Structures are given as C-alpha cells and as structure tokens.
C-alpha cells in the first residue's frame, strides 16, 4: 500500500497538535480502573488548511484502543504494516502506530488499560497483538451504532460510561489477574520503579512467576517486562520533551545517556526518528 509523504505530528513533541485537535476526557470513576480516556478527533479546520492530509505518530503504549470510524476510510500503520480502515477496529497498543488522515476523516476512540470485556468473554489478549481486528469481536454492534448516532463527543462518552459501568456492576468482584496487573502497573509508574524483577512481585502476591506472567499476557497481551519498559520509555520521553531542563536519565533507572538513547530508538519507528530533526537539540546530547 503506497503512503504519500505528509506532515507528521509526533506524540510528546508536537504537543500543541495533540492538545488542540483532539477531544480527550477521563472516564467516570467506576470505569477508571480499566479505561485511560476517551478521545475524538476534531480535524475539520485542520484538514481544510492541509488538504493533502497529515499523519499522527504515536509511541508504543500498554493496553488497547477501540477505534470507531465516524467518517471516511483512513490508513493505520502498525510498525511497518499498513491497514486501510473502512470500519471499526480493535488495536493493541504495544507497537508504534501512525495514522494517516485525509479529507472527512473523523475518529472516536477508547484507550483501555484492560478492557472490561474480559468479564463477559473468555479472551486471551495475547492472541490479539499483531494486527488490527474488527471491533465487533469485542463490542456489540448495537453499542457501536449508538455511539455513531450520538450527537457529539460528550454523548458518546456518556453512552460508553454507562455501558461499561453496567458490565462492572454485573461483576462486583474484580478478577484477581486484573487487580494484580493494574496494581503493579500503577505502582511502578507512580514510583518510577521499572526494574524490579517479576519474581519480587510474584512473591508479594503469593503466586508463582509463571502465573504472574500469564496474568500479564491474558490482560495486556504482553509480558510484564515489555509492559514496564513501555511505561518507562513513555514517561522518560514525555519528561524530556516537556521539561528538558530538569530531565536526567537516572530518574528512570537508566545507566547513562547512551542507555536511554538506545531505548528511545528501539521504541521509535525509523522514519519517526528521522523526522525528529526539529527536536534534535533535545536528543543530540544523548547519543
């Protein structure tokens, strides 16, 4: 699939773009254990000003995104694989992604930590990590339709808050794997502790290392090490981009500048790294 060269907006670095051209809101408190945030594009004026289109490049992340297409088809690239999206999709977020936007594109999304669908269906999310899958696998078509016909972003958020809250009310006791995994991720992110061995966490919860690894793969699709390293590089890169004066690699457990830079390159697509030229003053000292 041929993808034209377009203006590329890079997460963390093109801060104004991601703040000004996306709606974003946290879920209701009952759902916050599972959902990071709801989002929606607001590209009408931007696409009129840039009729050739543009792309948005995102770092790897943990969890999943449900994509609901409210407009025309768009192209989503996951690492080096491109997909033409005409409908709605389920996107594992453990890889770099780049979305190519053109006239009349309009997307709504749900960024999950862990999807509550695990309460209703026996799903091993490790089987859903390489591609984009039809959203109807995980979300009833009636709910998707209700989101699409809603009058605006706030109404879409309300529909989904209600839907997910209803699911959780049917299952008042959290599943143990979800509770353990989300607690570990939240604790490590809050304390910048990304290097504690999984054996330590397993002992804390009185389970085997193998069992804890299985919990991570079932709920996040990836291993504990992968999940924590994604959190680590995202938090470090955000700090570097937004407050370079007080950034130091040691805050995130890196041995030296070279260690951090190698990790950064590993998590960026080659093309994205090349397009960071406006920001090289932040990066040149890290080589």
Automatic annotation (TrEMBL):
GO terms for molecular function: DNA-binding transcription factor activity; sequence-specific DNA binding. Residues 179-268 form the HTH araC/xylS-type domain. This is AraC family transcriptional regulator. It comes from Ginsengibacter hankyongi.
